[in-house]
Request: fold
Amino acid sequence: MSKQYLAKDGTPITEEQIAAWAKQAEEGFSSPDVTLHREPDPFVIRRNDMRAHTIRVPESLWRMVERVAQERNITASEFTRQALDQSLARTPLTRDQKIDLYAEAHGLSREEAINRLLDSALS
Reply:
């Protein structure tokens, strides 16, 4: 007996539905009836807080970065920021590290960050 999954409304999710969703994902969600939205990022970087840093990467890797960035109509720097952001998002952080990161990203003290996060969660 396989595990059964239910939608929020209690409707069973079939293997056929899962296969169809996987196919849509593989095709890049090109269907007009599919709308993707992302929750707002709580760690939005303020552009005026940025400064240049030097990193060393193999030439072949940098060419790939430039190519993909060009395909997405963004700069190589923006692509690199996004890649770093996604990588860090997958890194497990402690509760305290998350609070400190939020505070730093928003120019807040630790206490102000905690209060803002609590206000947001309770609203």
